[in-house]
Design goal:
This protein has 10 helices and 12 strands. It is of the alpha/beta class. It has 2 domains: 107 residues, Rossmann fold (3-Layer(aba) Sandwich), CATH 3.40.50.720; 180 residues, 3-Layer(aba) Sandwich (Rossmann fold). The chain has a 7-stranded parallel sheet. Strands 2-1-3-4-5 form a 5-stranded parallel sheet.
Length: 314
């Protein structure tokens, strides 16, 4: 019998124990356990993590791989005990990107076709057809051109929206999509974006990027769709932009404090759509397969396909 490849789960047990069964079923050669169930810490060669504690990696001296359970890695990078010489990977499967594309497209349609107003009309038993605009006349701007940004851009372009993307290079974008880069490019993208979609990872450069300065560059009455990271949004400045009419609405899926406190103003704001950090997900089975593939690549002397650039933060 082949020797088991041992791994440890680091993070919140209540959201992670489902991964143990997934690894056993999808990749039987792998054994995954919670820290208290690890018999021999020196036998552990991979860690699956989400918001681990400062010292969580210390008991495991022979790690070959650390993986997030999702696309985000900022919580893992914040751990003081994360080994500096061990590859860190994020989950970046195609199904995750398509799930994000579907979620964002729904919100674009919600705001473009004014479904919120129709919902109000329904509650009032009020029959009125609102004016329409062709999708080709609606200018959508995306912040972030990674795998998810590309999937979102292609999905919106397929519906004939006028799509532009801001990225580090402004190049290698899906066909028919305008690219911008740099500070000047960000200002240019904002000036044309009636709907602004944030898909950026959290880095020192993107923390607080959704702020009053950016909002004032948008066309009056623009919409924000925020599916990046909660710490990127200055909440008070969003509320001020909504109150002034600079922004007409916002869809928010991520927040600085999660779960969003029950007394938070966002819950009751009539121009904000709140969802519970649910834009896309990776299934435990998908995670198991990607980790198994990454370990196989390491055996062949290659880095994981979705290895994280620690300097860039993603």
């Amino acid at each position: 019998m082949a020797r088991k490849i041992c791994g440890v789960l680091l993070g919140s047990p209540e959201i992670m124990t489902e991964y143990i069964a997934a690894f056993e079923q999808a990749t039987p050669q792998f054994h995954l356990a919670l820290p208290q169930d690890v018999a021999d810490p020196e036998a552990v060669t991979f860690a699956l993590a989400w918001d681990p504690g400062a010292d969580d990696f210390r008991p495991y001296p022979n790690l070959r791989l650390v993986s997030s359970i999702a696309a985000g890695v900022n919580g893992i990078l914040a751990s003081a005990s994360l080994p500096g010489d061990v590859p860190l990977m994020r989950i970046a499967g195609e199904s995750q990107s398509q799930m994000m594309a579907g979620f964002v497209t729904w919100h674009v349609l919600w705001h473009h076709r004014r479904f919120g107003e129709y919902l109000t009309h329904q509650r009032q038993a009020h029959w009125e057809r609102l004016p329409k605009r062709d999708a080709s006349d609606v200018r959508v701007g995306l912040l972030g051109a990674g795998k998810m940004g590309g999937a979102v851009g292609r999905a919106l372009k397929a519906l004939d929206y006028d799509v532009a993307i801001h990225s580090r290079s402004g190049r290698n974008l899906p066909a028919g999509i305008t690219g911008f880069s740099g500070d000047e490019g960000l200002a240019q993208l904002a000036a044309r974006s009636e709907i602004l979609i944030n898909l950026l990872p959290l880095t020192p450069e993107t923390r607080g990027i959704l702020n009053a300065e950016l909002f004032t560059r948008l066309p009056t009455g623009a919409v924000l769709i925020h599916v990046g990271r909660g710490e990127q949004l200055i909440e008070a400045e969003l509320l001020a932009a909504l109150d002034s009419g600079q922004l007409s609405a916002a869809s928010l899926d991520v927040f600085a404090v999660e779960p969003l406190p029950t007394d938070h103003v966002f819950w009751r704001h009539d121009r904000i759509v709140v969802t519970p950090h649910d834009a896309c997900d990776s299934t435990p089975t998908q995670v198991a397969h990607e980790v198994a593939e990454a370990m196989a690549r390491l055996d062949d002397g290659q880095l994981p396909a979705s290895v994280v650039d620690r300097h860039a933060g993603y």
